[in-house]
Amino acid sequence: MKQSAEFVTLMQQNRYHIVQFHTPEFIMSSTSPHNLNRGLLDFIDASPTPFHAVANMKAALEAAGYKPLNEKNSWGTLSTGSYYVTRNDSSIIAFNLPDINLAEAGFQMVGAHTDSPCLKVKPQPGTVKNSFWQLGVEVYGGALLNPWFDRDLSMAGRVSFADADGQLSHALVNFKKPVAAIPSLAIHLDRDVNQNRSINPQLHLPPIVLQTEEGDKPDFRALLEQQLRSEQGELTVGKVLDYEICFYDTQPSALVGINEDFISAARLDNLLSCYIGLQALLAGSKNKANLLVCTDHEEVGSVSTSGAQGTFLPAVLQRLAQDNESYQRIIQHSLLISADNAHGIHPNYADRHDEQHGPILNKGPVIKSNANQRYATNSQSSARFRQLCELADVPVQDFVVRTDMGCGSTIGPLTASNLGVHTLDIGVPTFAMHSIRELAGSQDTSHLYNALKQFFN
């Protein structure tokens, strides 16, 4: 599938250069099931990092008339309209401000996260072994490591550099083409690999980037400088000072199956929820106080300035409320739907599920519950969502982890405890969560979209 996103440099503000794309037709086109899925695939392929995902969402919001806000500036009393604000350029909040009393109405909020497990390049990464230049990596989040082997990998992320005037600047880069690989060890050298394969992340994961000649000393920062000059010809790039770069699989997202029943892609957890939440927000009523929040660092606990356990969302809501009494009332009148993928029942491993709570792909979004508050759902919030799904004619499923197994978590409990807002956890069922390539149902995107659109209307 040819990627339709064309990246260009659109703005230069405060020495920060954001690489964005001309809003492609899929962002604003008809949200028929086919267009919704094609739009999702293009969005994922155009968003190899949280920085790129947020830049792409910004472009779509601006095309729809949303106005940017800056946390460094005074907001005063905002007029009615639609706005967005970012933090760290990896988290974003977009919202409508209608002519209503927010303290009486509250917000309809949908939350998701922009990050996914990956391999991040270390600060001093380059090593040469047996003539091969490799880059040291850290494992970000709870990644399934085996699928990273024997893939065509590229790199993308954010680079900080000094320009010609010595001023600090930042820009996004995306190599796009395959630039690295992590080859498996041949079975002839590890006869027990199919019975017992353990991976040492320090020893076995550094990708091979190039083969060197004797005496060569490749410089990763020089490579980034070259890439910056290639991508952003208008910028004067001086010395690269630092970076946040990760590897990603270059295989394009796809609809798979005889009847295209499935979506196969990287980062479905949780760019699927970000994209569908964005589309639902854009289709939602402008007479409602609707809000979409997509935060970074969920895969590592959300403890950061731009994570769900940070101050981003409460700070924005406090500024909109303008006084503590109104803020507390807004919170109590609001509902947050935490949208994050759920574990679909795998036909080859059905015993890993509670047989009464095994979600099926393409059978609708899943209400996630946990008695130990690993999910924020309670009977009140789940009843509200079931009612929404009935009104939207959307099927709904339930997920509860086996009682003898541990349960993951989401931004739901963190946001609920941080704000005190009524919250529930939902998501579409998925296979191979946290793999380099995940699988979801192609009908579930429409199911989730229709449910969230009903919520926003």
TrEMBL record:
This protein's source sits in the domain of life called: Bacteria
Q: What is its EC number?
A: 3.4.11.-
Name the keywords, alphabetized.
Aminopeptidase, Hydrolase, Metal-binding, Metalloprotease, Protease, Zinc
Q: Which GO molecular function terms does the record list?
A: aminopeptidase activity; metallopeptidase activity; zinc ion binding
Q: Which GO terms describe its cellular component?
A: cytoplasm
Q: Which GO terms describe its biological process?
A: proteolysis
* Cofactor(s) the protein needs: Zn(2+)
* Protein family (similarity comment): Belongs to the peptidase M18 family.
Q: What is this protein identified as? A: M18 family aminopeptidase
